[in-house]
């Protein structure tokens, strides 16, 4: 099969060009050619087309081979340049090859031309492959060295075989050679080598990819937080010979996260303190029920945990419990502390505390529906509660839980108008009215926390 060959012929003789082309065809090529014999024509030909080969005469009236070689050099192209001449002295030939010609063939020995071309084309291919590989290497080397992460190739003797520039910067070294050839133990010290690197490198030799977080002491920078990844590196035969270890410094992000966490905890504490202050405010006016909301919060929280509610819901139930009677702030103190049974009118005034509580809390943006939970804490499953007479699942679960905790607490402790009734009576009440007034699941959980889990109501 013929090989297509794009040939630029630098020759002032049409006949000589035809002779060369015939020789190429005989040698199995299918030449596509253009003949030039001036500087401008050669420049135009080089910029217009891609050439596999340049064959140049030596003796031309308008153009010299030296000029042709210099034009080729200027173009930056790597094209095999072979001189085909009738008369070229040894000295000239050597000089032209110094200038960049690849070979020369005498016209009277034209049969040498095809083997010379084949060899030169092959060498040009090899040069091209080498150049591509070098370019690729330079690019990847550039990427590796401009990477701010520390990257290293570590062999099975724990020796650094290659590190990127980030290593010299981090360890304040002038050159990577000060690290390459040294062991991980030398660079980080025996303790850090044993505690941080050795075990992970050993796992890496077994093919494991590892990613972990470590605080490491860095010269002049102090403790820094790194995400370290270990990737096994295999040689051509598939054996793991090295580990590629990348250290990504994310101390700044870690510090921001820590500060955020601290301010979140502080904010939580502020919320808790505010809720406690509000809770205490209502109890100031009603010393007989002092600690009531706190005790209800304890029972409601224990029920919620027993029911496996998510932590966030448990927190919401706790906050709403601490505030559930805040509306009592608008009920006259005389009624709150009245030692005898309440009249219907007085009871109607007391009942308003659910709605008052809702009104007070609705504009506060809690992460839970605290105002609604407070509004519904006296609703009952059969619709007999207040203020809206809601039934069953229309009542918020949080309110159903607080409702049960509220009743139990109220019966266990004394009230201005009666003595304490005790835990047994309280549990009897919720058992008797299970599914009628109270949510059956909440009742079951409440009984379990007292009778099986030994829950004790805290005095305050
Ligand atoms: Fe209440």
Gross morphology is elongated
User: CATH architecture of the largest domain, please?
Assistant: Orthogonal Bundle
**Major beta sheet, strand line-up:** 2-1-3-4-5
The string of secondary-structure elements, in order, is EHEHEHEHEHEEHHHEEEHHHHHHHHHH
Q: What composes the largest sheet?
A: 5 strands, parallel
What is the averaged pLDDT score? Answer: 90
Q: Give the cofactors and ligands.
A: fe (ii) ion
Question: What structural class do helix, strand and pairing data support?
Answer: alpha/beta
Helix tally?
Answer: 18
Compute the separation of the termini in Å. 101 Å
**CATH topological fold name of the largest domain:** Hypothetical protein af1432
Instruction: Determine the strand fraction and express it as a percent band.
Output: 15-25%
The CATH class of the largest domain? Mainly Alpha
Name the poorly predicted regions.
none
Number of domains: 3
The CATH superfamily name of the largest domain is Hypothetical protein af1432
Overview of this structure, please?
The chain has 18 helices and 10 strands. The protein has 460 residues and is an alpha/beta fold. The strands form 2 sheets. A 5-stranded parallel sheet has the order 2-1-3-4-5, sandwiched between helices. Strand 1, helix 1 and strand 2 (29-36) form a beta-alpha-beta unit. Helix 10 (292-306) packs across helix 16 and helix 10 (292-306) packs across helix 18. The structure holds fe (ii) ion.
